[in-house]
Amino acid sequence: MGLGAKPTIRDVAKSAGVSLTTVSYVLSGRHGGTTRISESTQARVQAAAKELGYVPNQAARGMRRGKTDLVAIAIGDLEWPWDRALATAAARILPEHGYQPVILIGEGWRRFMLSGGADGAIIGALPPGTLLDLTVGELARRGVAQVIISDTMQPAGFDVLAPGSASGTPEPEALEGAITLLLDRLAGRTIGAGTTKAAPWEFKAP
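RE: above sequence
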């Protein structure tokens, strides 16, 4: 490994004296099946990874598993009270359920989501008055869980929450409701995503 270079899975395998397959299996957290790796070997791999400072590529792992454990939070501007409140609530709640939030400001969420960057998304970055969005429609066609924050869009394979006025700060219960709804969709606990439109959120005065 060159000076300043990031350690790779090959470096971990070499340091631990095991195969690439063994390192991949141990660090992926997989269990069961026909593969059996001794506790001493697992400990050696984990120690080598820690010593080298190796961090698995989350995106690559997600592609192999078909799951990223990421949720995109697409917002317009962190200066807006409800955008900031949504990002803050997501950062607090999602990790409790095994997901990490990815806060995306502006239009970058489109490419990120279309490339399979996250398992689901809460999208509050659509322009006011939007009735139809091609990216949202394509993600719905793929079966990606989405909660859209919009006064004008109608649910069609995704859920819509109407915020009313975005001039104030949303009630904590409303934010938690949006995040919980997405978590329900991701967990498959509810059927028929997008069949109803939620009532408008209540906002506190600034």
